[in-house]
């Protein structure tokens, strides 16, 4: 089809309201844009000389002169173009259309002004309260896979929606795409018949005739390892699911339709880091893993809690979106840190907010986003960092190192650090988008290694 733009003179409120009703009856968005400009300014512009002809008496029944103009009572957008540059007026229009999902080519699933997650779907894999008893009973009958604490962090990252559009640990095809392209192909609206691509067993012998249409960022492998003993136990069970168990023996999730495949340790490490260094703590973790990986979709039986006094700061991506909406955010900028904040950090966070307001945002909200998953032994512990962040918020803007609690949300981000430099930062930024962030501020040393 062809998009047609028609600029109609519409000075009468009844006519505009009638057009609005026709749009609403058909479920089509309608925007009334009020160019709120003084008549004297219009006369001064007068590119066609129309106002001069009115003044001379040549033109009669001219809007705003001798014919009425009924200003909109509740326009969606008001542009005082005599106070704005052309680019600024256009930016306001485009921002409103983007905020409402008109220009993104997908249904809007997040609050106005906040971006959709990758895959255009909010992911939350917790079972409902009504389902929980039956799921727990089922899990008791399944073969058990014991996770490391790092893998528990990744399970939380997946289940709470931080790795959208993933709904489980990576299958082999998804892992290889991630390693070699830092991205994955998806088809959320089934345009090419590939809607179930990420949740289907990898089949290298049969590729689809039409590839998925959308590529989304995915720069880090998110995997679950197992030993040959665990693999044999799963295969002997004749079950199409496994229970995921913590180091303490607590069953926290069910993984469906398990796909067990070779743990390509050397390929994973070299693609992530470009080098094999057994002194690197995350590389050491990869090589300590079993010889196999298990892919499959997960169901979390309950919230993952650590009972360390910090669970109040652990929000899911869905809960964080609600927080931003409650604060009336028209954009969100995330500040990541795995250190205590200092006056320099506070300056960056404040100035970033000022920059966004200068671009026309009315209520940018800061997301103070401490890294909450596993970190190496010489990093500052999470509880120390969070307690310091609490003091920074309590200090408010009267202190040079303080932040405004009215425009700031603190929420722990659950993924572990892998110390992979810019490759990891891509995931950090993409993940914050899942909870509504459009801007991301990160330190100069994302690798974090000495």
TrEMBL record:
Q: Which Pfam families match?
A: APS_kinase, ATP-sulfurylase, PUA_2
Source species, domain of life = Eukaryota
Provide a GO biological process annotation: sulfate assimilation
Return the Gene3D superfamilies for the record.
HUPs (3.40.50.620), P-loop containing nucleotide triphosphate hydrolases (3.40.50.300), Sulfate adenylyltransferase (3.10.400.10)
Kindly state which keywords UniProt assigns to this record, in alphabetical order.
ATP-binding, Nucleotide-binding, Transferase
Q: Which GO terms describe its molecular function?
A: adenylylsulfate kinase activity; ATP binding; sulfate adenylyltransferase (ATP) activity
Keyword Nucleotide-binding on entry: yes
| All copies of domain Sulphate adenylyltransferase catalytic, residue ranges | 312-449
Where in this chain does the record put each ATP-sulfurylase PUA-like domain?
116-302
Please state every residue range assigned to the domain named APS kinase.
1-79
Q: In which pathway does it act?
A: Sulfur metabolism
Task: Spell out the protein name for this chain.
Answer: Adenylyl-sulfate kinase
């Amino acid at each position: 089809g062809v998009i047609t733009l028609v600029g109609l003179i519409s000075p009468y409120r009844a006519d505009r309201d009638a057009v609005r009703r026709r749009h609403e009856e058909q479920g089509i968005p309608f925007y009334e844009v009020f160019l709120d400009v003084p008549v004297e300014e219009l006369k001064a512009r007068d590119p066609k000389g129309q106002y001069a002809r009115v003044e001379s008496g040549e033109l009669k029944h001219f809007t705003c002169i001798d014919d009425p103009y009924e200003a909109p009572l509740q326009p969606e957008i008001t542009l005082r173009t005599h106070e704005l540059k052309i680019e600024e007026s256009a930016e306001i229009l485009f921002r409103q259309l983007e905020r409402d999902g008109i220009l993104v080519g997908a249904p809007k699933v997040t609050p106005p002004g906040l971006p959709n997650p990758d895959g255009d779907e909010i992911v939350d894999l917790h079972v409902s309260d009504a389902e929980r008893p039956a799921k727990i009973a089922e899990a008791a009958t399944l073969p058990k896979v014991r996770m490391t604490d790092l893998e528990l962090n990744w399970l939380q990252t997946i289940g709470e929606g931080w790795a959208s559009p993933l709904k489980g640990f990576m299958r082999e095809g998804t892992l290889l795409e991630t390693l070699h392209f830092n991205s994955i192909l998806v088809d959320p609206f089934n345009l090419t018949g590939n809607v179930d691509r990420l949740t289907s067993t990898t089949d290298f012998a049969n590729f689809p005739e039409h590839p998925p249409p959308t590529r989304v960022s995915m720069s880090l492998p998110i995997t679950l390892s197992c030993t040959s003993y665990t693999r044999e136990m799963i295969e002997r069970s004749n079950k199409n699911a496994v229970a995921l168990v913590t180091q303490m023996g607590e069953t926290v999730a069910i993984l469906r339709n398990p796909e067990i495949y070779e743990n390509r340790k050397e390929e994973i490490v070299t693609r992530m880091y470009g080098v094999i260094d057994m002194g690197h703590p995350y590389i050491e973790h990869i090589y300590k893993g079993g010889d196999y990986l298990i892919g499959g979709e997960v169901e979390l039986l309950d919230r993952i809690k650590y009972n360390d006094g910090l669970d109040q700061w652990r929000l899911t991506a869905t809960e964080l979106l609600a927080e931003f909406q409650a604060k009336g955010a028209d954009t969100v900028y995330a500040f990541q840190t795995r250190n205590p904040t200092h006056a320099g950090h506070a300056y960056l966070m404040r100035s970033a907010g000022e920059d966004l307001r200068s671009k026309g945002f009315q209520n940018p909200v800061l997301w103070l986003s401490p890294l909450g998953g596993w970190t190496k032994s010489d990093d500052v512990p999470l509880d120390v960092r969070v307690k310091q962040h609490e003091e920074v918020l309590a200090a408010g803007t009267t202190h040079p190192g303080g932040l405004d609690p009215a425009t700031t949300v603190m929420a722990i981000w659950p993924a572990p650090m892998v110390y992979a430099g810019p490759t990891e930062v891509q995931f950090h930024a993409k993940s914050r988008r899942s909870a509504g962030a459009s801007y991301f501020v990160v330190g100069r040393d994302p690798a974090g290694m000495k």
